[in-house]
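Changelog note: in this version the structure field was regenerated for every chain. One regenerated record is shown below for reference.
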Amino acid sequence: MAITLSIPVGLLPKSNNVVGLSAATFRNPTVLANLAARAEVEGGDRVLIAGKIITGRNAKRVIVRALGPSLSSFGLAALADPTLKLVNGQGQVLASNDNWQDSPQAAVISSLGFAPPDPKESVVIEALQAAAYTAVVDGAGGAQGVAVVEVFDLESSPQIDRMGVPGVNVALIPFAKKDAYNTSTPQDDAAGRFAGDIVATLQALGTDSTSINILANIAVTNGDILRLNLATANTGTNPNAAFPNGRRFSDDTIDTLLFLINNRVPLSDNVNSNEVAFQSVFPFLAPSHQPRDTGVIDDRTRN
């Protein structure tokens, strides 16, 4: 199964002309925790306020978003530039944000799937102890308009799987730590949480330091995020456009990883192509399999 998206390059946040992608799977669809409120923001004491009460013994990680510009697509006189503050019961500001991409947690926001539609919208992530809290949405520079505040409780639908660079968890993470890896983030990777385990696995496989450093640069140093250089011509004949520079449907990612693990000596899993040709235009997927005629035993799914 696959999902394909067509996104204009101009809408992609990028650094040095490189964009990154990771995906996470949650046990249930992330549910809105207690509130989503919409109101007119007019400045002064006429701001959008939403309350949230945290209960239980353990801290809960929550995401609060303030949406404005993206609401204009619904025909609303939207707040052009919302700002967001998270305040505790004593009036102390625990976190604040204007444009979400300026947040030091912007990569986390994206990896968890909570990036707002517009770069001027705001997000904060906090681990909150049991208490009452308030989210306050105002307009930057006195801006006015309709805004929405949302609060998501990340503990209500835990992350159970993730994927950036293919094969890392399957091949390089010890069995006893696969669950921990699946529930972690690229920031954990970059902080070295699993670096020792990955290196130990590679050393046990006989991988030399050169290949270990290459693999670490792909999936550890900057976190397990699949990266694509937009300045590299993406054609079928350009080897520099192949995995690990992004990942095309036709790229044999496992053979590439085996090549590195095997100290840059070719090693194949002998699964060299799709049995049905991929398309050359969006969505690029091969045509789907159709039901077999009645009585056909071999449906090509047997090992």
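Spot check on this record: The mean pLDDT is 86. The radius of gyration is 23 Å.
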